[in-house]
Predict the structure.
Amino acid sequence: MRLPLKWLGLVPFLLFALLFLILPTMKIVIGAFQAQDGSFTLQNMIDLNTDSIRNAYWTSIKLSVITALLGGAVGFAMAAAIVFGGLPKRIRSPLLTFSGVASNFAGVPLAFAFIATLGPVGLITLWLKTNFGINLRAMGFNLLSFWGLVITYLFFQIPLMILIITPALDGLKKEWREAAAVLGATGAQYWRMVALPILFPSLLGTFALLFANAFGAVATAFALTGPQLNIVPIKLFAQIRGDVLGNPNLGYALAFGMILITACANFLYIWLRIRSERWLK
């Protein structure tokens, strides 16, 4: 049976997904349950229950939750401002365009940009010290730390929130606000009793997506803090980079744990998005 020619357009995508998503994922899952000699073992999964690895997962989860909450809150406020805040319409298009670019700006370029701006000898750091006598380092701020990484992650978390939540805000019908006003509801009551309950699945789903986005980021964290920050992506990189101290199979087990966590977060996002679209159609 010959496939229609229109299906040929999917061949590059399917080939790309097979080579760079499906096969590597299968390799990770299989390797997580293999010993160095290729035999089946559960030791790699047992080795995840060590203080260092537990702390790495906890630090990664804490980093992801904090950046998802802060990025979600700021992004929601900015999206609400451009949809309902009466800002000029000419601001919306550049903001959404910038958000599309910034949400994908990560890795070494992002780390370098923040080091050059807020690092120990960064532009803003020296400017504040020279002109106002404000020494960020003396005040306890260190970009190459957990909270420095939080600030850096917000650069792509906030724009991603704006991109995802703006269509949901656009889906709120004017008739709902008008009906609430006719019934005597204030603006705060409308948001508390009508808008936010409708948006809640979208907000929770977007939080799950932001969590997964931060949890899987490795290049930015490694370029910014190096191996000194104990998070799962950096520990995973240390295990599979190929030196004699690494254990690739333990790295596969670490990656398998990350896959499970991010898969749950993405499944939650998809399920909640489907539920929210029932109201917003």
Q: What stands out?
A: The mean pLDDT is 87. DSSP finds twelve helices and no strands in the chain.
